[in-house]
Amino acid sequence: MTARESCLADRLDIAFGLTAKERAVLVALEQSPRQCRRGHVVRRERERSDDLYIVRNGWLFSSVILVSGKRQILRFHFPGDLVGLGSGVLGEAAETLTAVTDIEMCTLPRGLLRTLFAEHPRLAAMIFSLAQADHVAMADRLASVGQMSAKARVASVLADILVRLRVLDKSITDSFHIGLTQEEIGDATGLTGVHVNRMIRTLVEEGVIARSNSHVRMLDEARLVQLANYVDRSKELDTSWLPPPPRD
Amino acid sequence: MTARESCLADRLDIAFGLTAKERAVLVALEQSPRQCRRGHVVRRERERSDDLYIVRNGWLFSSVILVSGKRQILRFHFPGDLVGLGSGVLGEAAETLTAVTDIEMCTLPRGLLRTLFAEHPRLAAMIFSLAQADHVAMADRLASVGQMSAKARVASVLADILVRLRVLDKSITDSFHIGLTQEEIGDATGLTGVHVNRMIRTLVEEGVIARSNSHVRMLDEARLVQLANYVDRSKELDTSWLPPPPRD
DNA sequence: CGTCCTCTTGACGGCTTTCAATAAAAGTGG
DNA sequence: CCACTTTTATTGAAAGCCGTCAAGAGGACG
């Protein structure tokens, strides 16, 4: 049993399976977790930074700000998610990272990618896979924002959050605490906060969801998924192309 | 001088610089180019396929179709672009690839990624970098579709195409042949073809662009870029983290 | 207990879509 | 090379979805 742990190792182990040796490599590299309060900006775009993070606890989102001052939320990140990869290969951060809840994140050292690519090809390939899965998720979101009605876009965000939380926490079935403001949902869907409010109310009136306090409950998940044109891709990862694990 | 060539080697050489040995590896792997006619669907989403392609000549675009029948164009791909990576790590293709012009593409073998990760870490890292650059580009597009006006979105697509073509072909300064229909521009921007037409006409009336036949000319590129809130990221690739090239 | 943030709701306006009809262009077959 | 068909571009009118503005209510927090 290892004294230290690694968020990244846990994540990769679940998705792909790790050997003890691979796990040891990651444990050795990972730095101690860092805490942030709800609303805190972990990193701002255009900052010089090639750090990588793994979410250990809580939610955050990545976003970009336009010159008009409008904000586009690109993606929500949950425990186990690898964050900041896109900025890691550019000179400066492309995305702002903001904590939705109190969070705990593990920072990965600057040289992580170099080390993995040079010495641990199978681990590098896993990270590549996760990055490509994110790419596909972003494509789904673009299609949602570009082609769907306001109601469908809101439904799509809710469905995505529910499905992704459920993968992480088996005890979640049909409801979750949503720490987002309606304004933030608007920034993710390309709508105003006011209109998000109306769409949520419509979904409640139609019996698709229910709310109490800050909890959202799915009453008719089939209809929600249909409304949102939602595709769950969480089970589609193809691991057959990965290089074989090293022989001890 | 090599008898055979490799589109991928050319691309990586321009972006990162290749050793002769690295080039030889890629030349050995690359298959002979394949031709497609304008409008031809190279690959359809949900098809079982983990092929990778490099564009040698012409344009294509990747897109997804929603159940409503609407289509979201995700990205245009120009010569040298690596296409299909996102689908390569999933069991099935996530995106449809459609030729905008007559095109010539090089197919890369199924095992390419595995070979590169296992045996040529620096090449794998380069491909990872390109993939992440695409990720950032997709984020920019999402912000455009989610937050900007119709005119700005159209301007943004035109600016993106111009800038990217100019990197590939130094002879291009302010005009290019646009093989896209206004409907296709609409599918990329989340607008209807009719409204794209109106926005293009507005841009012409304002003296920002001019058209003749299927050619678009930028009359006031500064204003176009400003309208589009366009950020040229083509020079932002950070190559310092790449593993060192192998010693011969 | 007061302040700030978020949610809620209504009225109004405008941007974009939809529908429709024509013209122009491109592709096809003779 | 010309007639015919299909696709694309263009334009107007009307409708609708969503944004803007505004005001009040409810909660969290100090």
Order of the strands making up the biggest sheet of chain A: 1-8-3-6
Low-confidence stretches of chain A: none
* Number of helical stretches of at least 4 residues of chain A: 9
Query: Could you state the oligomeric state of the chains shown?
Result: homodimer
CATH homologous superfamily caption of the largest domain in chain A: Jelly Rolls
CATH level-two architecture of the largest domain in chain A: Sandwich
What is the average of the pLDDT values of chain A? 91
Number of separate structural domains of chain A: 2
Strand content of chain A: 15-25%
Main β-sheet of chain A: number of strands, strand sense, barrel status? Answer: 4 strands, antiparallel
CATH class of the largest domain in chain A: Mainly Beta
Q: What is Rg of chain A?
A: 19 Å
Any idea of the CATH topology of the largest domain in chain A? Jelly Rolls
Total strands of chain A: the figure is 11
Can you walk through the features of this model?
2 copies of one chain form a homodimer. The first copy, chain A, has 2 domains: 147 residues, Jelly Rolls; 80 residues, Arc Repressor Mutant, subunit A, CATH 1.10.10.10. Chain A is α+β, with helices and mostly antiparallel strands. In chain A, helix 6 packs across helix 7 and helix 7 packs across helix 8. Chain A is 43% helix and 20% strand. Chain A starts with 6 loop residues before the first helix and ends in a 20-residue tail after the last helix. In chain A, the strands form 3 sheets. A 4-stranded antiparallel beta sheet of chain A has the order 1-8-3-6. In chain A, strands 2-7-4-5 form a 4-stranded antiparallel beta sheet. Chains A and B meet through strand 5, helix 3, helix 4 and helix 5 of A and strand 5, helix 3, helix 4 and helix 5 of B. The structure holds a DNA duplex (30 and 30 nucleotides).
